[in-house]
Amino acid sequence: MKVLVTGGVRSGKSRHAESLVGSHVGTAPVTYVAPGPAPEDDDPDWAARVAAHRERRPASWTTLETRDLAGALAGADRPLLVDCLGTWVTGLLDEEQAWERTSDDVVALVEARLAAVVAALRDCAHDVVLVTNEVGLGVVPAHRSGRLFRDLLGLANQRVAEACDEVHLVVAGRVLRL
Length: 178
Hints:
Blueprint: E1 2-7, H1 13-25, E2 31-34, H2 44-56, E3 62-65, H3 69-74, E4 80-83, H4 85-95, H5 103-123, E5 128-131, H6 144-162, E6 166-171, E7 174-177
Parallel strand pairs: 1-5, 1-6, 2-3, 2-4, 4-5
Antiparallel strand pairs: 6-7
Helix pairs in contact: 4-6, 5-6
């Protein structure tokens, strides 16, 4: 089963995703793929958020911190929980120093990485739950980087959703299966 879990910030997406993986595999090992940036010393809020996620994970889960989502999916030997595509897109743009490139160049970069991720997701023999943010429901961001991120994450969400069996929207802790 492949499931994409989407929703707003602090909506309960990660807890729901964790419950899905837990319900599918019981106490079996799970690989938690963290494709986002590592906590930085100058950002205590991000460090606290990462720590809270780590504390919730069962001891039988392994954490893999990587932006190589296609490689993580292709090399999976157990169910995976990917949390989250939003931090993956941010990390990819940071890693490639792509924030100031033309929109066409950045879309081509993300599309190429997404094609590999989607192919690996489709081929993965294990259950996969992916978490993402739904960023297109609010106001149009005032800055180019915000608009670029919104558009790229929307693209990523669509491509990944096409490869999933289900999409779950989480709002205020409530889940709507789409």
